[in-house]
Amino acid sequence: MSLKVIPINHSKKELTEYVKFGIDLYKGNDYFVPPLIFDDVATLDPSKNPAFEFCEAQAFMAYRDGKPVGRITAIINRLLNEKTGRKEARFGFVDYIDDSRVTDLLFATAEQWARDKGMTEIIGPMGFSDMDHEGMLIEGFEEMGTMATIYNYPYYPEHIERLGYVKDTDWVEYRVNVPEKVPEKMARIAEIVLKKYNLRIVKYTSGKKIKADYGEALFELINVAYADLYGYSALTKKQIEYYIDIYLGLLRLDYVSLVVDADDKLVGVGIAIPSMSEALRKSGGKLFPFGWFHLLKALKRPNPVVDLMLIAVHPDYQSKGVNSLFFYDLIGVFNRNGAHVAETNLELEGNHSVQSQWEYFERRLHRRRRAFRKKLY
Questions:
Q1: What pTM was estimated for this model as a whole?
Q2: Counts of helices then strands in the chain (DSSP H, E)
Q3: pLDDT (tens digit per residue) in 41-78
Q4: Backbone conformation region of residue 248, classed left if phi is above 0, alpha if psi is from -120 to 50, else beta
Q5: ∠ CA 257-263-264, rounded to 5°
Q6: What is d(CA 265, CA 221) in angstroms, rounded to the nearest whole number?
């Protein structure tokens, strides 16, 4: 049988086939949550994704007798390499059938592309920036995924470890029971923090207003708060404008908690959304003809599961109890909307300050994912 790997150009047709392969491979799987096809196509399109201003990337597709059997995208983030002084490539958007010949050729092609560009190591799965999916699932294969995470079959890490990839870092994820009220100790801490630092919690009911008041400030805060996290690539002004247009208008604003100081400067943000997992599974990654209905229903109606998308606190206020303010604000909101369980999504295994906030809640560690690294010389 003929096996070949070919570069994918940036036509909508080829990118759509590339994205659909990563969905079709999981047909019948009870735990896979598909991405929205148009969203992933836009991410991989240099004419739409502003990350291509400082990133170079090449997608590859493996075919056997004309049928797709694997995919991978090799990425070089030049801004991050300048920051770290490394010659590092990334691989992402990776999927493959359980066949060593496919993975051998797929990864060899991506690695050679990176070598030809002068790179000396490769890590992944990672995207262009932290706004993209990252981390290969290594535990929790029988747990429903979320819209913010990657699902993959158990054989994935076995294949790349065989190719010489080793652990670089892990992320953990918790499933947290939402209590009927704010834990008493957390409530006391929140009230002390509000008074001690002269902070207040701000809520919005208008998407246009939150964009105008704190749109840029929100993403600039993320840049500052996440600057030292693993693999973080600071968002540029154009990326910030891009994500403001895409995401802020889609938020359910009662699930957004902003913390400001006496001068109305943003010092913390917590963003959650009702779980989109079941809705995305019903949509199959498509908005039309009925995907939009399932997504809107999940967003607007009572939903038993909530996804905690991000918490960001300015470094000047970290380790001062500000995180408690988001739960002080949002636990009541979750209960009013029928949410009984929260998904934490990705947290670096060594980020103990973040994980310590779950000590107030019943929870279980139910998924673990990994970034792998390989030397290219």
A1: 0.95
A2: 12, 14
A3: 999 999 999 999 999 999 999 999 999 999 999 999 99
A4: alpha
A5: 25
A6: 10
